[in-house]
Amino acid sequence: xxxxxxxxxxxxxxxxxxxxxxxxxxxxxxxxxxxxxxxxxxxxxxxxxxxxxxxxxxxxxxxxxxxxxxxxxxxxxxxxxxxxxxxxxxxxxxxxxxxxxxxxxxxxxxxxxxxxxxxxxxxxxxxxxxxxxxxxxxxxxxxxxxxxxxxxxxxxxxxxxxxxxxxxxxxxxxxxxxxxxxxxxxxxxxxxxxxxxxxxxxxxxxxxxxxxxxxxxxxxxxxxxxxxxxxxxxxxxxxxxxxxxxxxxxxxxxxxxxxxxxxxxxxxxxxxxxxxxxxxxxxxxxxxxxxxxxxxxxxxxxxxxxxxxxxxxxxxxxxxxxxxxxxxxxxxxxxxxxxxxxxxxxxxxxxxxxxxxxxxxxxxxxxxxxxxxxxxxxxxxxxxxxxxxxxxxxxxxxxxxxxxxxxxxxxxxxxxxxxxxxxxxxxxxxxxxxxxxxxxxxxxxxxxxxxxxxxxxxxxxxxxxxxxxxxxxxxxxxxxxxxxxxxxxxxxxxxxxxxxxxxxxxxxxxxxxxxxxxxxxxxxxxxxxxxxxxxxxxxxxxxxxxxxxxxxxxxxxxxxxxxxxxxxxxxxxxxxxxxxxx
Length: 582
Ligand SMILES: [Fe+2]
Known about the structure:
Helix content: 25-40%
CATH superfamily of the largest domain: ATPase, nucleotide binding domain
Mean pLDDT: 91
Structural class: alpha/beta
Largest sheet: 8 strands, mixed
Low-confidence stretches: 572-582
Bound molecules: fe (ii) ion
Shape: globular
CATH architecture of the largest domain: 2-Layer Sandwich
Oligomer: single chain
């Protein structure tokens, strides 16, 4: 059976397709519409997910008639019938002509994490995000094992905002999964006051956007946490603690000062102690709260493997502490723990109802593979180059010479992290390139760090690793003697948000890094997402070419075919005779 999963998220709407138990495609609507964080707006464009659905169907040669089941999840109070009524009056596809099944938001996160993990058998699953679905609406409108078990009683539901009634949303959820499915163990609900919401609120205060939590995490290592707790009040019974947004005067006073900073300073001097210490406190308290939750789950289940998802699982620093400071021996964080991954969870849950889910070998490269037209690329200002050279050797040489290379290959990554199919690559030894990448190419804040992609066999030589990081979900300490060698990917606290590369995951990138190692002795590259600030990751070869021209990167390599950016001359720093000859 073919199952479509839909995420009706207001900021990360997406669709995913599972064919006969195999996850074959997934795409966030932003990648198709080119509108960053394109989601469902209840009053405006409503629920129309046609661009993402068509993408999945066309990529696999299907039509809507070939879909046996649509599993979906949204985060509003609308009943399933109201959703179907709206869908029927909107443009696009008549998806209500197919069997439809609504499931809870956090359960969809949990299914996405469990079924796309390498784990089978019993696994603990923890979900933490800004806010999931409204709890009351979930109990009324959703189906599946979670609302059924809660309705039967015996599942602790801790409400941080008991006076908000139906306004209380899912904040933190805990599950046990095995080959038969998932069972909810405990839920924390409330009104925008949980761990993820507090982090989002602080991010909005500093950067102007609730969803800029990644910037907050990047700023935190520049500061020191305050001596007293600012952000969370810890309550609940001793054996089952909860963390609600603090109403302390100290926090309010600091927030007022930051508000004034925003009004007067605008986007400069992020490294002011006011901000860095504020974010360091937030990060530390968030980590402590997550540790408490994870320890409860481990103790309660006795299990040794954890899947962690929901938007807060993008916090790779916190994830690393979960790996280091709990009794879980293995932790899996999917590459798209945010709401874009909801569609994957929905589709895999639907598949699990109809037989076994096939192992997900690559939960990341789920986009469509495009052929490309040389003339279209050249028409945008790029020139085909190095036609007679080995592409890996010559591109590695150019990177070693100081070039920034836009590397485009196959289907795009699902999730916010570039993992080598849509990446800007550069020399990790060159700290000047970090400046160039932040200011000129990506056009983003100067304090933001860059990450390495490193060959698996070399990880131990360069990093102190606590949990393998195949999707940039964890950080590792860069070994002290190596920090001066690879400063462009070493953050201010000596850490790196690294991606471990196995040859089977991406043989081409593996070959390129191997060629770079042969030239420089360094088995890694700086890797950052192939987009500019405020834009989604590039999707098509034409998107890629436009981005290279606008960003002044030196080269674009599309499916192993190199093009020089004519505007920069292609060789920003190159001094080799070979390069000059081209
Ligand atoms: Fe979520």
